[in-house]
Design goal:
mainly alpha, I/LWEQ domain
Length: 404
């Protein structure tokens, strides 16, 4: 007899094997990431405008809020997909629904920066999160011992989304405090849900997903480098500084890519606590990479006399994101896998980059320091660890334990 699930051509949504060989990102996951290119780009553009107009504080606060919505929606889907993805038609439709929410969110970024209008942003965010609730409810039907975990996710996300909608009735200080509370509530849902039984995660798959998103946000910085060349073509008086800025941006972005992909990321999440640390600190990684592209655009404005910031303040708009990116990756993925040389050079190098605008030739110093950090990675010879398979300590529930 044909089961109802099979009659609708649906695949039972059961927990995936955390040791599944050859697990890689699906084309649906890659398609899902594309809409976030739009959101990240819009956030960086708006940050650039705020910084170049010398609205540094308000710009950074708005950017941090927008990027939380982008990062949290992406990360929740990514971890769910590594645990329960089926790739049948219903899973695809719900995922595309989440993508629609991301596009709406992109439209709400400018009103937030310009008028502190949260309405479109909150509505889009709730759309994305409620699609995630539908995924968790479907997963709960065949989750076995993970049923309670799945339902906790569904209930927790739903409650927080209701509170997000309620927050639209507030304004001023009360709204700001309540938003901080809601962000903490969002971060707490996975911690509470995973206490009794942890969802399975495939270490190579999940870290590949993070790596792909990192490439997306670094790509925004390369776009800024191209914009510097384009401006140089149109502004002959600023050709030399703009071409130099473009080359600097390429060197720095290549250095960040080298640093990020040097350690064996799959070995950085052997426990539940390590997984939370890895996932949550990536907010700083992604946000810093996005902010770097905005900083490069600010430097272009300085070179073409279109910025209210002076050259020193503008330099901080690139050195701060670089330092945050390097320190974050060092903390969650490199420190435990590296030798003394790397663990000395990277944090010291990040601090030197951070402080470089205090002395002349800040960008040149930053490029040299980035090159020295990469040289330390090469000299350590530890990159051979990248080829090692994940160890037996990978967290997760075997597929055999959760099948009904």
């Amino acid at each position: 007899m044909t089961t109802p699930a099979l009659s609708f051509r649906l695949i039972p949504m059961r927990a995936r094997d955390p040791h599944e060989p050859g697990r890689v990102a699906s084309t649906l996951e890659l398609f899902f990431d594309l809409v976030f290119v739009v959101a990240v780009s819009n956030a960086a553009v708006q940050l650039h405008h705020e910084l170049t107009e010398e609205h540094v504080g308000s710009g950074l606060v708005s950017y941090a809020m927008v990027f939380f919505a982008i990062w949290w929606a992406w990360m929740n889907f990514t971890w769910f997909a590594t645990s329960f993805a089926t790739d049948d038609w219903l899973y695809r439709v719900v995922t595309i629904g989440q993508m629609a929410g991301v596009l709406i969110l992109s439209a709400g970024i400018e009103p937030l920066f310009a008028d502190r209008d949260f309405r479109v942003l909150v509505f889009a965010y709730v759309v994305m999160r409620m699609a995630m609730v539908a995924q968790w409810l479907r997963a709960s039907r065949r989750a076995g011992p993970l049923r309670r975990t799945a339902l906790t996710y569904a209930v927790g996300i739903t409650v927080v989304q209701a509170l997000w909608l309620a927050s639209l009735a507030l304004s001023g200080t009360a709204a700001a405090v309540f938003v901080l509370f809601l962000i903490l509530a969002e971060l707490s849902v996975p911690i509470i849900a995973e206490r009794r039984a942890t969802t399975p995660s495939h270490p190579h798959h999940i870290t590949e997903r993070y790596g792909l998103f990192t490439l997306i946000v670094l790509g925004e910085t390369l776009l800024a480098a191209a914009n510097a060349i384009i401006e140089a073509v149109h502004d002959h008086e600023a050709v030399t500084p703009l071409v130099g800025l473009s080359m600097f941006t390429l060197v720095v972005t290549a250095g960040l890519w080298w640093i990020y992909f040097w350690p064996p990321h799959h070995a950085a999440i052997p426990t539940l606590a390590a997984s939370f640390r890895y996932g949550y600190v990536h907010y700083l990684v992604f946000a810093a990479a996005g902010a770097l592209s905005a900083g490069v655009e600010v430097l272009i404005d300085v070179d073409t006399d279109h910025s209210k910031l002076d050259s020193r303040a503008a330099a901080f708009t690139v050195t701060v994101p670089i330092a945050v990116f390097v320190l974050s990756i060092w903390l969650i993925a490199i420190r435990a896998a590296a030798d003394r040389l790397v663990n000395t050079v990277l944090p010291i190098g990040a601090v030197l980059v951070l402080l470089s605008p205090l002395v002349p030739y800040a960008l040149a110093i930053t490029a040299v320091v980035m090159a020295l950090m990469v040289a330390a990675l090469v000299a350590s010879g530890a990159q051979q660890d990248l080829a090692r398979p994940a160890g037996p300590g990978v967290r997760g529930v075997d597929r055999a334990d959760v099948l009904e």
